[in-house]
Amino acid sequence: MSEKLKIKLSIANRVYPLTIEASQEEGLRKAAKNIEYMIKQFEQSYSVRDKQDVLAMCALQFASQVEQKSIDKEHVNEHVEIKLKALNELLHSHLNS
């Protein structure tokens, strides 16, 4: 049975108590740290009215990174598939000759 932990994460001057799997702690703490860093970057770079705006900008930034990685992965997979088909055809041509 996996161990449950109770942790508190601070994001945008609010504390969020969470009950998590022990294996999730490092990732959640790193994510909270990245969000805090991004909040500071947005606040320094843009005229921001409130934390809601900054959090929305952070959410958009993180979501776009996830989507871009998915798009990039699809392109890599397509490239690999083309290369594998060419290699397969080459092998068949050598085996059948």
Structure description:
This protein has 97 residues and is an alpha+beta fold. It has one domain (4-96). The protein contains two helices and two strands. The chain has helices at 25-45, 51-95; strands at 4-11, 14-21. Strands 1-2 form a two-stranded antiparallel ribbon. β1 (4-11) and β2 (14-21) form a beta hairpin. α1 packs across α2 (51-95). The longest helix has 45 residues, at 51-95. The mean pLDDT is 92. This is Cell division protein ZapA. Keywords: Cell cycle, Cell division. One of its GO terms (biological process) is cell division.
Question: Topology, pairings included?
Answer:
Elements lengths: L3 E8 L2 E8 L3 H21 L5 H45 L2
Antiparallel strand pairs: 1-2
Question: Nutshell version of this structure?
Answer:
The protein has 97 residues and is of the alpha+beta class. It has one domain. It contains two helices and two strands.
